[in-house]
Amino acid sequence: MLGRVGATDLAAACTQSPRAPAPAIVAPHAGIGAWGLDLSARDPAVRPGDDFYRALGHRLDTNHIPAHRQRRGSFDELAERAHEQVRTLLAGLPPAAPAGRPAQKVGDHERVRLW
């Protein structure tokens, strides 16, 4: 059973105005572009049972694998972009950083490493 103070607090809580809704969080768009199955790219002349990959799109005709690669996909593109960003960061390290500092250690290590 609620005491006198408990009942009063409960009644006051029920009559308070509701809180304002939290502002909506807008997520940034992905940097990799549109994704998913592009049905507008399918070839209606090819039946999926005959050649599934060509029936679902022209990717085999338009997405060429570079000669120095075994494959090409979205994860490969992300890896290439990440490696380029790391190379840019490492190129920005000062060549004469103070001894013992992280910039000096990382810079020395990466200067002798072959990319």
In short:
This protein has a domain at 38-91.
Overall, the morphology is flat
- Radius of gyration equals 29 Å
Intertermini distance:
74 Å
The helix fraction, in percent, is 40-55%
The poorly predicted ranges are none
| Helix run count | 5
Quaternary status of these chains?
single chain
Biggest beta sheet attributes: none
Order of helices and strands: HHHHH
Query: Helix/strand/pairing class, anyone?
Result: mainly alpha
Question: What is the strand tally?
Answer: 0
Mean pLDDT: 77
Verbal overview:
The protein has 115 residues and is mainly alpha-helical. It has a domain at 38-91. It has five helices and no strands. It has helices at 4-15, 52-55, 59-62, 74-91, 102-112. The protein is flat, with a radius of gyration of 29 Å. The N and C termini lie far apart (74 Å). The mean pLDDT is 77.
Please outline the helices and strands.
Layout: H1 4-15, H2 52-55, H3 59-62, H4 74-91, H5 102-112
What are the main properties of this structure?
115 residues; single chain
